Amino acid sequence: MERAPHGARRPGSNTTRQAVSEQQQISIEKELRKSYLEYSLSVIIGRAIPDVRDGLKPVHRRIMFAQHELGNAYNRPHKKSARIVGDVIGKYHPHGDSAVYDAIVRMAQEFSMRDPLVDGQGNFGSIDGDAAAAMRYTEVRMSRLAGEFIADIEKETVDFRPNYDNTLLEPVVLPTRVPNLLLNGSTGIAVGMATNIPPHNLGELCNALLHLLDDDACTIDDLMDHVKGPDFPTGGFVYAGQGLVDAYTTGRGTVKVRGKVEIEERKKGFQAIVIREIPYGLNKSSLVEKIAALVNERRIDGVADLRDESDRKGIRVVIDLKRGTIPDIVVNALYKYTPLESSYGINMLAVVDNRPQLLDLKSALSHFLEHRREIIIRRTRYDLRKAEARAHILEGLRIALDNIDEVVALIRASATPQEAKDRLMQRFGLSEAQSQAILDMRLQRLTNLEHEKLLDEYRELLKKIEYFRSILENIEVLRQVMREEFTEIRDTYATKRRTEVLMDELEGIAIEDLIPDDDVVITLSRRGYIKRTTLDNYQQQRRGGKGIAGLHTSDDDFVQEFLTTTNHQYLLLFTNHGKMHQLKVHQVAEGSRTAKGVHIANLLPLEKDEWVTTVLSVREFAEDRFFLFVTKRGMVKRSSASLYARARKGGLIAVGLRDDDELIMVREIHNDDHVVLTTGGGMAIRFACPDVRPMGRSATGVKGVALSGDDRVVACAVLPGDDTSTEIMSISSNGYGKRTRIELYRLQSRGGKGVKNFRVTPKTGDVIGAMPVRDDEALVLLTSTNKIIRMSVDEVRSVGRATMGVMLVRLDEGAIVVGFDRVDEREVVEESAPAQSSEQKTAPEGGDAGTEGTAG
């Protein structure tokens, strides 16, 4: 058994039991809670949340006080930033040098502080996020406004406390004459709470303080008549809506802020958008990168070039637009998709009496008023004490001068200065301070001129003493002093508002309000190039004309879809796979009459072997409205339009298809309508809409017509069942066409072979389509050589069913008719001259297009 070392006590001895009994039992939970609360309070009070009185966090207060101690005022030469940082961390702020220097940099940045408190010399970073130069390269001094934060600090206006090592004293708060909490705002994240106070305009704040000083019972609404809203150093717009009212009345709220843009006119009809101001706190370079990414992703269309031309004179981001682009639409997209419009959350949290408190506008201003009132009272007491002390000395000197011969004799008769002092006190009833002042007085003060100066100073001091006492005794005099101070600060330092306050809500621009609901033409080529062009670009011509060029395509491409519509309608694009994609008509890129357009793949996520086969435009998706789907193999389906209102990003299934079938067209249909299906072989069938019951989106449908051999459905005409005035216009590929009265097509049940519609011969070519027409309408035809011709419907002869009609257009060699549509003839200006060829006459360039029907 081991023995205990010499002198050691075994466990269980009296000494060990006594030590154990002296230990205290504590709760770990309570100790952690206590320690964490102390830590939280330290972060809130000593680091992250500003004081309501001077609006400063400790690091900013110590930076300003250290510069004051160094005499680094606005009218003195700059000092190295490293020297300021060294003094701050060595004397008052025991933290890292980078934290202090970062605070100095921010106080010097004009885009961060509404009114900078540091006058910097050198590179202090940029609004693009560039870092400041190292502290050894930059120089700083207090700004002129910062001097108002330190003014009167030597007059015992604020309390001082020991610094971190008890070797120096630092101010608890600065005796600022500036309402800095609201002037420059503050942002900070503490433990479990945060503050985000926006900057404001100094002139407006001073006016509000003057109003509150005159009427302490005023409401927040009264103060908001003076404080219009935040005034950010980067300018822009801010919406003074309910969010701002909530922020000023409760301390919390959210406001919308926007950058400011201008529209510049360039040569040859081009335009450019110039961003001049951006929201507060936004990195300009990241904004430019975001805009560039959106342009590349085609979420912002119509942009030709993007560049940053900003310099020291200000921000200038230029967005050049393509010809014909509506600038307001691009501006709307910038506000919608980029941080050029953002929300600013206001949380007016500050330290009040060493406790964090949420402030409204009135309480924030009231606390500052109370701070100034206390500062002025303490300053006045200091001045009064100094004035009374000086007046006391001057009173003794006046007595000495009145009795100068006796005083001189008394002093000459004294053996020591102390004896002279005692004898003066005894002879004239002077105090020790007065006697010492007489002994220290220079002989030149005995002249008559000096005597008068002394008396003038004494009389002036008496007036000051009376004034100081009136400030302390009369509240109205005190208010007048405060009023003069705020007026002086406003007149000296206030600048014009930079952020424009909008009283109307900042809403996205309604694109439909910017684009007139004009008739337009949508053209889609077989290879998928789509464009929008104004209908006015296609002049009406007589039957038999050669037409004008309508679309520039390659030799192996031709126009597939051609429809008239209006800019505000929805464009439904149905593919051969039975899918539907949805766009607004105005979203289709604008192009001139002969432009090729943009590929549909830039607008829709199509598969490799998928293409758009038919296009339909509608204005609304009502539940009692129906779409009729027709496939190449003669299948038909009726579905409610409401099923197609919400298209997914990748499209949605519009109709179920068999493996050997394709969707060829879609028409809007009503319950009393009749349907006429036309085949390429010249057959047609007419049946009533109720023969096709309503089905779901993914249904395949039912048989509409029985096809013979390799015949296929090429067109579907939908017309009211009681309509007898409408005629069916049928057109063949070789340019032949005819009108046939609708009563010649007998009503049948769906699923039959139908009746003869068109006498198909090698001369006429197969039927490419058919549609109902009226005499007051015009017809627009397109050829495979991309020629367009317009004519009146009444120029085409009305004949029977089993005929081939008349020639409608003279085709170039090898050309065929590939599409046609109808428009209202009343909207077309009649051409009185004979038709001219496209080589002889050109039409003006136009904008974008859209339509309601398709053919072929």
Automatic annotation (TrEMBL):
Superkingdom, according to UniProt?
Bacteria
GO MF annotations in UniProt: ATP binding; DNA binding; DNA negative supercoiling activity
In which broad location class does this protein mainly occur, judging by the first location in its UniProt entry?
cytoplasm
Q: Could you name the Gene Ontology cellular component terms for this entry?
A: chromosome; cytoplasm; DNA topoisomerase type II (double strand cut, ATP-hydrolyzing) complex
**Residue ranges, compositional bias (Polar residues):** 12-23
**Pfam families, alphabetized:** DNA_gyraseA_C, DNA_topoisoIV
Q: What does this protein do?
A: A type II topoisomerase that negatively supercoils closed circular double-stranded (ds) DNA in an ATP-dependent manner to modulate DNA topology and maintain chromosomes in an underwound state. Negative supercoiling favors strand separation, and DNA replication, transcription, recombination and repair, all of which involve strand separation. Also able to catalyze the interconversion of other topological isomers of dsDNA rings, including catenanes and knotted rings. Type II topoisomerases break and join 2 DNA strands simultaneously in an ATP-dependent manner.
The entry describes its oligomerization and partners as: Heterotetramer, composed of two GyrA and two GyrB chains. In the heterotetramer, GyrA contains the active site tyrosine that forms a transient covalent intermediate with DNA, while GyrB binds cofactors and catalyzes ATP hydrolysis.
Record family assignment: Belongs to the type II topoisomerase GyrA/ParC subunit family.
Name this protein carries in UniProt = DNA gyrase subunit A
Q: What is the lineage of its organism?
A: Bacteria, Pseudomonadati, Thermodesulfobacteriota, Desulfovibrionia, Desulfovibrionales
Query: Quick one: which gene encodes this?
Result: gyrA
